[in-house]
Each structure stands twice: as C-alpha cells, then as structure tokens.
Amino acid sequence: MEKRALIAVVLSLLVLFLYQYLVDKKMPSNKEVAQTEVTEPKKEGLEGMSREERILPETRSKMQLVKVQGITQKEEKEITVTTDLYTAVFTTRGAKLKSWKLQKYKDKIGKDAQNIDLVTGRKSEGYPLGLESSKPDLHDIGDALFEVNKESLSLKERGEQGSISFSWTSPDGIELIKKFTFSAGKYLVGLDVNISNLSDKDTKEDVALSWKTKLDPSKKIDSYSFSGPVALIDGNLEEVEIKKLDKDRAYSGTVKWAGYEDKYFISSIIPKESRKVKLGMSKSSGDVVSVDIVEPIEPYPGGKMLHSYSLYLGPKDLDVLKSVGADLQKALNFGWFDVIAKPLLIFLKYINKGTHNFGLAIIVLTVVIKILFFPLTHTSYKSMKNMQKVQPLMLKLKKKYKDDKERLNKEIMALYRSHKVNPLGGCLPMILQIPVFFALYKALLGSIELRHAPFIFWINDLSAKDPYYITPIIMGASMFIQQKMTPTVGDPMQAKIMLLMPIVFTVMFLNFPSGLVIYWLVNNVLSIGQQFYINKYTA
Question: CB-based burial of residue 157 (10 Å sphere; 0-12 exposed, 13-18 middle, 19+ buried)?
Fold first, then answer.
C-alpha cells in the first residue's frame, strides 16, 4: 500500500504539471455561460436573435461608429490625454480610442523598450470604444467626424479630474454625445453616452459599444496563460479562446464587465449598476476580435437617454482590480486554486514591502510555508523511514504466503500494527500540501508583480525563464539529492520512477519563469535539510 500510495503521489504531481503544460490552455471557460434569455438558446452566435437585434459581427461590415456634434471638424484630429499612469490618444473620426500607453509598464527590458499600448489596432476599423448600429441612416457614421470640446488634457496631480466630450448628430436628428472623464492616479475612466432625439419621429434601435483588439500573428502564444475576450455574466466568468471564435458568440444577461485580457493586462467595459444587456464576441477576417455591449436607444421625440459605463484599462494587479469593484478581481483567474492562490499572492506582496525584492520575497514565503508544513512533512519522512525498517520482514512474509493473498494481507496489517507503522503515513501529509504548492505555482505564474522584476546577478526578470538555465539545472540536482536521501521501500520499479523525476522536472522547468524555479529550488534545499535532520537525529 505504501508503495502504491507513494507512486500515486509522484504520478499525481507529474500529471498536474503535464496538465498545466499541455491541457490547461485548451480548457473552456469556468462555466459555459448559457445564452440566457436569447430567443433560441441552442443556437450559437447571433442565430437566436432577431434580425433587428443582429447588430453584431455578421453585419459588422455595414456598421459604423456613431458621432456627436460639437465643433465641426473638416479633417480628422487627434486628442491627447496625459496622466501619471497613461497617455491616451483619441481620434475625432468616430470618437474612438487610438492609443492607450501605460506609463509604468514597458514591452521589454532594455534601452529600446516602449510603453505597453493596450490598443493594438492601427486602422480606424480596429480602434476600440466606437458605437455601432445597423440603422440604415447611420451606416456611414464610422467615417463621420465628431466635434470635440478640447484638443488636449493633462492631469498630473493625484485626484485631479478632467473630461472631454465628443458629439455628432445624424441626418435623422439623433444626437450622440460621448463624455470621457479621467482622473489622475487611476486607470478607471468614466464614459457617459447621451442620446437625444432632436426629430419629431420615434426612434428605436440597438447600439453596440465595442472593444476591439487586433491580433498579432507574429506574437508568440503563452501556453501557460489565457488571452482573449472575457466577461463576467450572471456571476460566471466567461473566457473564450480565440480559436473558438470561428463562430460568433452572443449572450444576454447581467454583465458586470466585459473586454479583452492577456496574461498581465485587461481592457474592460463596465456597465454601471451591472445592468442587463446583450453581449457579443466575434473575430473578423482581418483578425480583429470584437467584444460588443449592446443596448437600445429609444428616446421619444424631444427625449433623451443616458448609458453610463466605467472603463478599466490597466494591469491585472489584484489590489487595483479590487478597488475598482464590479468583481473585476475575478479577471485574475487562478482556476481551481483561486481561493488559496490569491491569499498567497497578497502575502507575497506584503513580504516584498520589507525585502524590496520579489526574489527574496519568494524565498521568505517558501520558508514560511515550509515551517507551517513542517509537522506534516516531518511525520511523512518519519513514516517512510519506519516503512523502510519493516521492509525485510515484509519480504519474508511475501515469500512465506506468496500463494495465499488473503493471509498475506492480514499478516502485513498485523506487522504494521505491531511496529506502529501507518502505511499511508508517508503520503497523506504530502497530498495535503499539493493544493498549496499548485496554488503558489499559479500565483507566481500569473503575477504581474514579477513581470520585469529583477532578482540578483543574471536574473533580471522573475517572470521570464533563466536565460542560462542555471537555476533549473541546480533545481534538478537538488531533486536528485533529495531522492537519494529519501527512504525507499526497496521496490526497483519505484526507485526507477523516483530517479527519473529530477530529469523530467528539469526539462519541464527549463522554460518556466525563474521566480517559480527559485521557489521550487528553495523548497528542495529546505527539504534536504529537513531530511538530513531526520536521518541523523531520528531513530
């Protein structure tokens, strides 16, 4: 039983790692959110919606951005907004966002590093935050020039606020005003869409506010994290892989937020009051992914309507996401281990306040976890050593009762009782630690705090692999030493499996983030010390 349980633990570790390495990226979202309240729930995409409602991808070529009147523009102009956290550039053509560069985050390490730009489209049809409608008289609004009340805005002092308004009036007398409100020290932006019916006719039409992302086919895909459209619908996190957007997605329900995310950043639209809306996700032939929040505009003649949103365009920092509200922290998704991973990440950030080095913080956190689990691992090692002592007696019993399995099992259990040995005592404590280990593994793998964070010497980015593979090789050597020190039960097959593990893990860890490798290495070194103590001072 001891042999089987130990092999089960080892294989479980290997399977979980291979699962992360090969399968995790392929998994569907936490819960495939049912297309709630769509006319025909079983149909994918927009098939279940009426023709009048289908203002999403399949009619996208006919749809244009809506504009609002203010200052008549004869040519397209760019409006720049600068704060301490970002520099945003809007265009008056469609009142769209042309660029959103984060001041504190670079695309790489080095002198030629550029600020991260969350807007990836380089043409008007790929710019986000446009309004789209299928209404015939609004078909050319994507090329219309909005009026704007300011040519630039600069906010540097924390708490300082300012706004910019874009306006346009359709030939049918529908006035649209998009007011963006910015605050220094925050990634959160307010967006009010005011609709006024200046005509004497009733208006009833759906309009979509869109976030668009132009895919870069040359960009290397990170197999350890999710990138794609994401939304929180009816309390369920919906993440849709790009390859699954061969069919358009349509949903209806209470949307807290929706947008596009990658490993470290998210661009999200947050309807105020988490109201019920329609939501579409699609990918065009030009590799532009669109996430559309669809709401009706139906002001009576002379009437007005207001759709209010917040926009969060920034890092997936747990503390910042929590401060936004709307459960935006769920965008930082650690899967099954979320309930453990997030507290560990919070504790890691707390330690870093004292170390001012996330590499050292990882080491301290590893030591703390090792201390907390010391009683369990100590019990495990002692049990394995006791099992080693009774192996000669077990072999004699196996020879004596080789033809009587039932009697053999009874004698082995009696042997365990007489020597006070628990056959599962060596494995159960290890199994209890597995969720904590993988939670920390997930936290370190997706933590933006480790992005471009230096450690010492040649390790200048804890989120990237060791460029010289030094730490993974040392880690593999430490695993080998640990295996040699760990008591075995004398089974040749088990011994081969255990000796193979350091090789397998070394190969797997070659391309893992160096921060994760450091955690595993330190954990191994501490385990070696603990095993040395048990072997020397425990009978």
Answer: exposed
Average pLDDT for 2-15: 52
Q: Is the same domain home to 253 and 353?
A: no
Given a cut of 80, is residue 499 above it in pLDDT? Answer: no
Q: Give residue-wise pLDDT tens across range 285-321.
A: 889 999 999 998 888 788 899 999 999 999 999 999 9
Mean pLDDT of 71-76: 66
Contacts 24+ apart (CB under 8 A), 371-374: 373/429, 373/433, 373/436, 374/530
- Is residue 385 located within the same domain as residue 491? yes
Co-location of 212 and 347 in the same domain: no
Phi, psi of 518 (to 5 degrees): -60, -45
Which residues span the domain enclosing 443?
Answer: 2-21+342-537
Question: Pick from 332, 366, 399: which residue ends a domain?
Answer: 332
Instruction: Looking at the structure, tell me whether residues 91 and 6 fall in a common domain.
Output: no
pLDDT tens profile 193-226: 999 989 888 878 888 999 999 998 877 777 778 9
Domain-terminating residue out of 300, 332, 364: 332
- Would residue 385 count as lying in a domain? yes
* 337 occurs within a structural domain: no
- 65 and 15 in one domain? no
The CA-atom distances, in angstroms, between 271 and each of 332, 347, 491 are 19, 32, 62
* Domain count across the chain: 2
- Whether residues 391 and 305 share a domain: the answer is no
The pLDDT-based confidence of 404 (bands split at 50, 70, 90) is confident
N residues, the chain = 539
280 with 140, same domain: the answer is yes
Query: How confident is residue 54, by pLDDT bands cut at 50, 70 and 90?
Result: very low
Residue pointed to by tokens 């937020």: 257
Residue 93 to residue 77: CA distance in whole angstroms: 8
Q: Are 324 and 332 in contact (CB under 8 A)?
A: no
User: What does the alpha-carbon distance between residue 525 and residue 296 come to, in Å, rounded to a whole number?
Assistant: 62
Query: Could you tell me how far CA 143 lies from the centroid of its own chain?
Result: 35
Q: What is the mean pLDDT of the chain?
A: 82
Which of 331, 380, 356, 328 shows the shortest CA–CA distance to 538? 380
State the Cα–Cα distance between residues 15 and 22, nearest whole angstrom. Answer: 10
pLDDT of 503 over the 70 cut: yes
Other CB atoms within 10 Å distance of the CB of residue 164: 21
This prediction has a pTM of 0.81
Are 400 and 374 within one domain? yes
